[in-house]
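idk why but the lab printer keeps eating my pages so im just putting this in chat instead. protein + tryptophan:
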Amino acid sequence: MSMRLDPWGHFAVEDYEKLLKEFGIQPIDQVLSQYSLEHIYFTRKVIFGHRDLDVWFNKFLHGEKTAVLTGFMPSGYPHLGTAMVYEELKYFQQKGVFVKIVIADAEAYAVRRENRNEVIQRGLDFVAHAIAWGINPDKAEFYFQTEMPSSYYRLIQMFSRKVTQAEIEAIYGDLAPAKIIAALTQAADILHLQLDEFGGYKYVIVPVGVDQDPHLRLTRDLADRFKHELGFERPASLYHKLMRGLDGNKMSKSRPEYAIHLNESLEIAEKKVINALTGGRITAEEQKRRGGEPWKCTIFELYTYHLIRDDKRLEEIYYECTTGKILCGQCKRNASELLKQLLKNHQDSLKEVFESRLIEKLVKKPLF
Ligand code: TRP
Ligand code: SF4
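predcted complex ->
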C-alpha cells in the first residue's frame, strides 16, 4: 500500500528515508554541501528534506524578492514543536528575508470545530510567543485568515476551478468539504504574496513539519496551473522532523500531557521530563554494560532540537549515553535544568511582550 500523509492526523514519522522516496521530497544533504546553511537544524539534519530550497536560495542570493511564510493553527497552546518553526523563521529573518505568519483561524474553526473566541485569543498568543522567541516584530507581518481582503478569497475561488476530485483524492484520500476549503485556503496563504497587492514576493519558502507536505504538493500544482493567468511561481518548502511527544508519539497540541508547552509551569515541565520515554535499558546494570540508545530517546531529542546548541557537547552526551557512562536519571535531571532555564527566559520575555501591548498594534484582530 502506498503511504499517505495526513496533515490533520496525529502520528510520529518513523522512517524519514522512506518519506523522501515515496513523495519525491529532496533530501537536504546535497544543498548542505552547496550552500552555507549554518543553523543547527541543518547541520543536525533536523531539517531533513525540502522542495526547491536550492532554487529559492539562488533567487535570494541574487537579490530577488524573497519571503518566508508559514502558519499556525491556533488550537491548543504553542509547544516545543511550534518553537521549531519560530526558530526557523528567526533564522531566515536574520538573513534579511521578509517574514509573513498566518494564523489559521478559519481552519481551526472549520476543521477542528473550535470555539471562535478561543481561537482568536489563542491566535494572538501564537503571535506573542513568536515575538518572545525572538522574531523581530518590525520585520515580520502577521495576519488572521478571516481578516484577509477579497482578493485573497478570490484566489480560493479561482483555485477551486482548477483542482479535480481525482487530485484531491490522490493527495489526501477522501476529504470532507471543510478540509478541502482549508487546503485551498492554505494554498491562498502560500501564493497570495506573489500578487502585487501583497508585495509581489515571487519566491516564497514555507518551513513546516513534514505532515504539511500534501498541502505543498497541491499548492505547487496550483501555482503551475496559474502560471499563465497570474504569473505564479512554485513555492519552495522546508521540512523538519516532527518533534515527538514525551511518550514517543507525535507532539501534538491535542495531547497536552505529552507535550512541553511554552507557557508550562517549570514544575510540571520537570515532572514531564522525569517521566519521559528514554532509550535506557531495563536495569542500571545492563545500561552500564551496553549503553543507552539515544536515537530512541525523547530526552536526547530535546537536547538536539532545543537544549544544546554546541555540537561538541551534543556529541559528548551521545558518547556518554552509548557507552553507559551516564544513566537516564542523571541525564534527565540535566535536561530538566536546561529546559527550565529555556522556559524561564522565554516566559520572561513573553511577559514583556504582553506588557508592551505590542500585539494589538501588530495584528488585526477579527471582530467575530
Ligand atoms: N495547516 C497548518 C497547520 O495545521 C497551518 C497553516 C495555514 C499553514 N496556512 C498555512 C502552514 C500556510 C504553512 C503555510 O498548522
Ligand atoms: Fe536518553 Fe540520556 Fe538515557 Fe541516553 S542516558 S537514553 S540520552 S535519557
